[in-house]
Amino acid sequence: MGDLLEDDLELRVGTLQLSTDNTNADNRRDNASESNRNKNELIANSSVLSGADSLSSSTSSFADARTEGTTNSRPENEEPERTVYPRYDVPFSSENIKDFFTFRKGVVENAIQDCITALLFPEDGEYLGSWLLTEITLWDNEKERIVLLTSRLVMTIKYDFIAMKQLDFKKTYLDDLDTIVIGELVYPPSSLVPRINGIATGVTTVVKDCVIDRLCRRPTGGDAEAKVFDPKYFEPRERNLRGVRLMWNKGEPLSMKTAWNPFSQDVPFLTFASHPIYWHKEGSVEDRSMYDMETFAQKLQRAIESMASSSCCIHHSPIVIQSYVGVTSLLHNKISLGFFKVRGKFSF
Questions:
Q1: What pairing do the DSSP bridges indicate for beta strands 127-136 and 142-150?
Q2: Which of 137, 241, 278, 312 could form a disulfide linkage to 291, CB 3.0–4.6 angstroms apart?
Q3: What is the pLDDT of residue 50?
């Protein structure tokens, strides 16, 4: 009897030892896999930051929140797809958008044709497309720009839509690009811009509802008046806008001379977003593609991928706007100083 118990005990101990060895082996394999994943992520992040010789294609990432309203048939037990990007905040109202000179029929088309005729030459490569976009500068100022894309370069043009003439232009060759980032425009975590923007929007809303509306019509009841002071009007407001950034800085940070000079012409990147007219122009998405950053980004990515000599890294991630206080840019963007508009008795 004792011999049987002893043999049984030895068998159990041996089985326990075998199970422990298998567990340790599994843990080692899991740790190795996790280590490889972390290493690959680190390499990927490093290549994005430094503009290393890597090229990733992710055309499906161009789907944005503007198509969220379209629903597809799916089984009832299947979870609905989550929106990758936040909704756009529609810039300007449908009434104010008519003050833009570029909203008038034929103005943009004529201006683009003028730029193509005067500025593009055969050595610039095959013409791929043209857009009217919003350029966002280093100091977070929004400016109206015509953008021409060829197989060799991106041309950014400052155009006077009142006098219908070119003011300035800049050529950026695709061979010089080392990184392209496509994603949501965001501010650094320590930035005060979202808070200041929320306060400014809240004050504007209260003044409009409490002062202007009271002068135009009879005051409403107490409940409506209390609703005017809803704290949500003063909540921090992010950009809630997507953009594309073209970089040729080889992963190096900006010099102090460039970063703190608002008139510097040596900024090694360009940032574009959709023009405000995109959200108000009548017609289909194809009719409004001239004002759409997404269409420009798609064609730019295809142009990069078709270049065998390109070492540009295309990355889909948030685009950080290095603005921390932004009072001047907030004022500049609120009154649209970077756009040609009718402003009362004046136009500029």
A1: antiparallel
A2: 278
A3: 32
Give pLDDT, residue 129: 97
Output the pTM of the full model.
0.72
Helix (H, G, I), strand (E, B) or coil at 60: helix
Residue 336 near residue 93, CB atoms below 8 Å: no
Of 238, 200, 234, nearest to 323 by C-alpha is 238
| Maximum pairwise Cα distance, the chain | 111
Look up residue 96 and give its amino acid.
N
Per-residue model confidence (pLDDT) at position 347 = 80
What is the C-alpha separation between 37 and 14, in angstroms, rounded? 35
According to the model, what pLDDT value does residue 310 have? 84
- Judged by DSSP in three states, 325 sits in coil
Q: Which residues contact 35 (CB under 8 A, 6 or more apart)?
A: none
- The Cα–Cα gap between 252 and 7 comes to 69
DSSP code for 13: H
Using CB atoms within 10 Å of the CB of residue 103, give its burial: 0 to 12 exposed, 13 to 18 middle, 19+ buried: middle
pLDDT at 98: 87
Helices (H), the chain: 2-50, 107-119, 193-207, 213-216, 222-228, 256-259, 293-305, 327-334
Q: How confident is the model at residue 91, as a pLDDT?
A: 59
| Residue numbers in the chain where pLDDT is lower than 50 | 1-26, 28-29, 32-33, 35-88, 222-226
CA 310 to chain centre: 23
| Spatial distance between the Cα atoms of 216 and 167, rounded to a whole number of angstroms | 42
Residue owning tokens 């965001």: 186
pLDDT score for 216: 63
Closest CA to 312 of 117, 124, 126, 176: 176
DSSP letter at 100 equals B
With both helix axes pointing from N to C terminus, report the angle between 327-334 and 193-207 in degrees, rounded to the nearest 10.
Answer: 40
